[in-house]
Recover the amino acids of this structure.
């Protein structure tokens, strides 16, 4: 029996043993949903590089492991252990999850405005199961791939957020996921459900960090629904550990006049893959996707995005940048699909990459598929090294070569950070960039 088949049997047997203890066990609709996920996983297994969507990203390292469902919540952690992840100066409704489960001793939800429901998903299943049922599995198909199937079967917790029509959630919701490494590899299956009513506004920060070392998997599904004229700002910051794997599917359904802005920043983890989809399903829907990935060593970051323009007068702007060093690898695949009848669509897409070593690699594939004739669309990608003329100019002003290289690299990456309107998040990412980028010590000494 191959390792892959044996490990697949391991997950099936583990599910049968744990099913009765999963959140919401005993609810007919949820039990059926989980069984559907398990059956899909048995049929699909993990994705393979033979599949076009996974051509450049191998998950063999995940397939070879036997990840256990984490059961420890690490109750001994205190707030100081969260360090800078608390984001100095951030006033937010904070929900902390340790190894995939809510940690009330570290969470600070505060007082929520009237018309806002924000709960750990495991609690929401007990308090408002009908509202959870209305959102679970509506955007991300169970059968999409082995990871979404496994998430459907195993998900334990996450954020449930509903904002009623016309309500503005003034302070952000900070969803902080902390992984504490253990001797055995753990898997954490997380699901976030966000529903904004007509004209509602909210900011959500989805943040992943690791304390200590250890092999683990964060398998995440986000299902987002924006009713007409709703506005959502979604920050996602991945700072996984050196042996952490992060696989995520984010799907946003947008109705007329809604506005979704995504800031997706990947700075850590051995393997990170984000699939981000925006479905503009009514006139005048708007979507902005900003992404930044900075890699070194043997890190691998894969960003797959898709924007569907289904109705006229939709707008989407997508701008992703990558800085790759060492023997790291990046993948960008962005699809903008303009459906028949989606006239007056304005869709712009760009992906720019900076390679800092000969061994670093990027596979970039921006795509446009247009089936309407009155549109304004563009796409493009660039791959290059530091500009020798700019380096020469800085060195001619007395700046050492290493410092000059650091300044140019930081400037290239910071262009994406400037779009972030939330200052505490922007400030943290700026600090992390200075540490992560080559020649950080020299750069910190400038000025």
């Amino acid at each position: 029996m191959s390792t892959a088949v044996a490990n697949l049997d391991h997950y099936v047997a583990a599910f049968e043993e744990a099913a009765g203890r999963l959140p919401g066990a005993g609810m007919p609709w949820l039990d059926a949903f989980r069984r559907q996920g398990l059956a899909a996983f048995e049929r699909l297994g993990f994705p393979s590089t033979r599949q076009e969507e996974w051509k450049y990203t191998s998950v063999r390292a995940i397939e070879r492991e036997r990840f256990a469902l984490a059961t420890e919540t690490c109750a001994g952690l205190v707030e100081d252990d969260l360090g800078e992840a608390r984001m100095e100066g951030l006033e937010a409704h904070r929900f902390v999850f340790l190894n995939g489960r809510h940690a009330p001793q570290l969470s600070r939800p505060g007082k929520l405005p009237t018309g806002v429901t924000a709960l750990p998903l495991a609690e929401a299943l007990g308090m408002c199961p009908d509202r959870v049922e209305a959102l679970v599995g509506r955007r991300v198909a169970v059968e999409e791939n082995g990871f979404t199937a496994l998430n459907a079967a195993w998900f334990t917790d996450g954020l449930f957020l509903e904002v009623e029509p016309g309500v503005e959630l003034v302070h952000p919701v900070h969803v902080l996921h902390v992984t504490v490494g253990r001797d055995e590899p753990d898997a954490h299956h997380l699901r976030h459900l966000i529903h904004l009513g007509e004209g509602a506004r909210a900011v959500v920060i989805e943040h992943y960090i690791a304390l200590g070392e250890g092999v683990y998997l964060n398998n995440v599904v986000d299902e987002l629904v924006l009713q007409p004229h709703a506005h959502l700002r979604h920050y996602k910051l991945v700072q996984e550990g050196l042996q952490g794997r992060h696989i995520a599917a984010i799907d946003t359904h947008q109705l007329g006049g809604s506005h979704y802005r995504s800031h997706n920043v990947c700075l850590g983890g051995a393997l990170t893959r984000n699939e981000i989809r925006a479905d503009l399903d009514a006139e005048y829907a708007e979507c902005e996707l900003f992404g930044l990935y900075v890699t070194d060593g043997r890190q691998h970051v894969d960003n797959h995005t898709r924007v569907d323009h289904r109705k006229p007068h939709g707008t989407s702007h997508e701008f992703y940048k990558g800085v790759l060093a060492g023997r790291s690898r990046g993948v960008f695949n962005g699809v903008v699909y303009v459906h028949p009848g989606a006239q007056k669509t304005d869709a712009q897409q760009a992906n720019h990459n900076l390679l800092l070593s000969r061994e670093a690699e990027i596979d970039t594939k921006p795509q446009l598929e247009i089936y309407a004739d009155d549109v304004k669309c563009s796409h493009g990608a660039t791959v290059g090294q530091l500009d020798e003329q700019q380096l020469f100019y800085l060195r001619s002003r007395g700046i050492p070569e290493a410092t000059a290289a650091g300044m140019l690299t930081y400037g290239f990456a910071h262009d994406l950070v400037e779009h972030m309107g939330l200052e505490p998040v922007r400030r943290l990412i700026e600090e992390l960039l200075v540490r992560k980028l080559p020649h950080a010590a020299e750069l910190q000494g400038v000025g």
